[in-house]
Amino acid sequence: MPEAIVAASASESTDGSAVQQVDVAVVGAGFAGLYILHRLRKAGFSAVGLDEANDVGGTWYWNRYPGARCDIQTVDYSYTFDPELENAWTWSEKYATQPEILRYLGFIADRYDLRRDIRFGTKVTSATWDEAAQRWLLTTSNGADISCRDYIMATGCLSAPKPPEIDGVKDFKGEVLFTGRWPHHDVDLKGKRVAVIGTGSSGIQAIPKIAEQAAHLTVFQRTPNFAMPAHNGPRATDRVAQFEADRAAFREQARWSLAGVPLTPTPAPSWALSDAERRERFQKAWDEGDLVFILSQLWADQGNDVGGNTLVADLLREKVREIVKNPETAAALSPFDHPFGAKRPCLETNYYTTFNRDNVTLVNLRDEPIKAITAGGITTDRRTFDLDVIVFATGFDAMTGAIRAVHPITGRDGRSLTDVWKNGPQTYLGLTVAGFPNLFLITGPGSPSVLSNMAVSIEQHADWVVDRLIDMRDKGLTTIEATEAAQEGWARHMADCSALTLHRLANTWYTGANVPGKVNALMPYTGGVGPYRSICNEVVGKGMLGFRLGGPDGAAQCNDGEIVRLQPDVRLVLNMLAEMNLPPIESMGAQGARDFITEFNKGRPPGRPVGEVLDGTIPGNERLRYRLYRPATPGPHPIVVYFHGGGWVLGDEQSDDPFCRDMCRRTGMIFVSVGYRHAPEHRFPTAAEDGFAATRWISEHASHLGGIPGPVLVAGWSAGGNIAAVTCQLARDRGGPQISGQLLICPVTDCSFDRPSYTENATGYFLTRALMYWFWDIYCSPDDRTDPRVAPLRGELRSLPPAFIATAEFDPLRDEGIAYAEGLAAAGVNVEQLKGSGHFHSSYVMVDVIVTGAACRAKMAEALRRFAGLPAAAGDERARFERKTPPTEINAAAG
Ligand code: NA7
């Protein structure tokens, strides 16, 4: 019997009280809960919604402080599931006020007749998985308990306010207000002495409004935040025009975008723009008044590189100084302890100008911390403020708080969610938790949630969950649970994604750092809305990968595994290449393949500037070309002789240009990229002999090239790694030149194709087994292949220079690189290995495309510096942001 038929019927619990029986219980009647109820009903499930509030609205029910608005444009911050709905509702402003958003959610509840399924004023007091019944039992603060097969937490991310954490709040004789729990009656602040503690989004929205009413407003700021003007007003005409031109396309673009708003991030890196161009872009973004715009449209490196980010941060600080008249106040309002975007930036309306008012005082808690709240006001360690009202705009126990507030949630084997999450939240896709069957989290930790347009993420999560329930019903399955392996894989993927961002450099509510004692872990998924959506779809396409499904009569299915093993940017690049449906490179012929690579390279980001780039030739019978990259620092520098990749057939001294630039900057060394000769025109051993000859000439002419005379270093990628390794063996055997270190990146080291990586990674990762066969055939006849000048693994490995060998997990050449490292180590050579998990053959050289490769290049650069006897490069990113007070340059600029 379908469960819908027993919908909302009451049965007897063991203690005799009525239990409401439903297919699905949904906690929360905000954006997420309302849509889920609608979808469940349409799908024929019986459902009950539960909310502690007395009406719909979720976070918008509670956050009704003065000035409360959304900070995603309302044209984007809307449901999209029903085109008719889009005709039926028109927002009045670019950023709607809280009352208008609440009206919208009330309108939705009425339009789809949802209220009749919601129990308001009802808190879930416990949720327990009943193993025997294979159902959840919920106890509630009001009315019957609930037995449900599936339990969905649509509790929002910012719904559990943080306690004040300041001594003496209870002693205060005036009024205490919380932005997150603002009274439903009118609050009259006229003529009162008001304090606001906290300058996050809520404080920044409320402060100008409160200043307009209060006799005096004192703002207690612990940390200045980045804010930019909202330029609120009627709906933004260009955005609305874009929407009206093709509504479906607009929504679809948002669904596949990074932040849930139809904006494609700019590809231009900061160093490709002049100062004037950067200022122009910044001013446009400032005038636009849109957070997603400024976070995505300035320059490509603003979100993942401290240098690119500082350029934006400096311009934002400049604006603060322009607006705020008192330089000391301007300096105090200038953010300094986090990169722009790593902490939620704010949209403001008259926030900075408020500090030019006579009735507003800023108290910088970094200079004078609060000692206590007393009966009459607030005392810092310098002075006392007499107050009538204190407003706490101190934020929320974000993301996990709202879920754990329903306590206890007890899953399989009596394990509580609080215990399971004691070291930080663990989820699969942010939607499910291993050990908690049939429990779903909407915008939970591990989903894009707060780093996205919530409306878009909520619809995607809700659709995915309800579609799964429908599929399961169709297949006669009744339980679904994430596996531990899938969950661990998701944690790793989350970490890989966040390594691409600057979130690691900020202590924020995204990481739990705002709540004393909370485990510090970045909670939202940083990989983006579109990639997340495609991953969720892939889980389904791969037969519910990572889920254990069960049903009555022993029906069971478990397709265990990790959904994303590639680095996030590697996944994107490989998907993009797959979509291009290119013919195999080996089918193009040597010249065709060379032309293809030349064209392909034209589309890549330009490398970063270095001190000097010089082209030259190495004299000799075959005048080999070279390109020299010199650091901007004063010389002379150690020299690295570099050999490009391309299977001894493709590429030239310029083809790894971005890599050489990057490594020149990181190492502070000269890179000389050698244009050795290629097959089929010049077969084995030409490339190897050219490599050796070039190294000898460069070593002999080191001073002339601006280098330090003495030993050189060698480096190479792929076939270039092969040439570098061979050069070291030849130099040892032929009496020089002296080589002080070798960096081999995904090198070819052997002529055997039977190692596991050749089979595991035979196709799908750009460098294929077939392509390698082709390269070998073009370069080297079978009879020559065991010659150490092409298979250095077969050579003598003793007495070679120290080596750093980088391999990539998804590379056919992985295992021969590892074998070479092991062979060197066994021969007593000092060798370090970097086994790049989730990387492919081109990861390390696709600079500014595979951004996750940067950390690996940093290690390569450290190794080269060590080999050359240089000290480690300076620059601890973390220390830069760990200051308690602004750096002198910010104070000086303000002064
Ligand atoms: P936020 O962004 O967490 O801001 C809270 C603010 O309160 C922030 O400035 C905190 O300073 C400050 N705070 C917190 N605790 C204290 C104590 N004990 N003493 C002094 N100051 C304190 O919360 P919001 O409500 O403004 O915004 C939440 C989200 O809602 C927002 O990001 C949007 O997504 C919508 P700190 O930075 O911790 O030093």
Characteristic key phrases:
alpha/beta, 28 helices, 30 strands, 17% strand, globular
Concise description?
The protein is of the alpha/beta class. The protein is 33% helix and 17% strand. The strands form 6 sheets. Strands 1, 2, 3, 4, 5, 6, 7, 18 and 19 form a 9-stranded mixed sheet that branches. An 8-stranded mixed sheet has the order 23-24-26-25-27-28-29-30, sandwiched between helices.
List the helices and strands and how they pair.
Blueprint: E1 9-12, E2 18-27, H1 31-42, E3 47-50, H2 59-62, H3 83-88, H4 98-111, E4 118-119, E5 124-130, E6 135-140, E7 145-153, E8 175-178, E9 193-197, H5 201-213, E10 216-221, E11 227-229, H6 237-245, H7 247-255, H8 275-288, H9 291-296, H10 306-323, H11 327-332, E12 346-348, H12 351-354, E13 360-364, E14 370-373, E15 377-380, E16 384-386, E17 389-392, H13 401-404, E18 409-410, H14 417-420, E19 439-441, H15 454-475, E20 479-482, H16 484-498, H17 529-541, E21 547-550, E22 556-559, H18 568-580, H19 589-602, E23 612-618, E24 624-630, E25 639-643, H20 657-667, E26 670-675, H21 686-700, E27 712-717, H22 719-733, E28 739-745, H23 756-760, H24 769-779, E29 803-810, H25 814-826, E30 831-840, H26 853-867, H27 877-881, H28 888-894
Helix pairs in contact: 1-15, 6-7, 15-17, 20-26, 21-22
The structure holds ligand NA7.
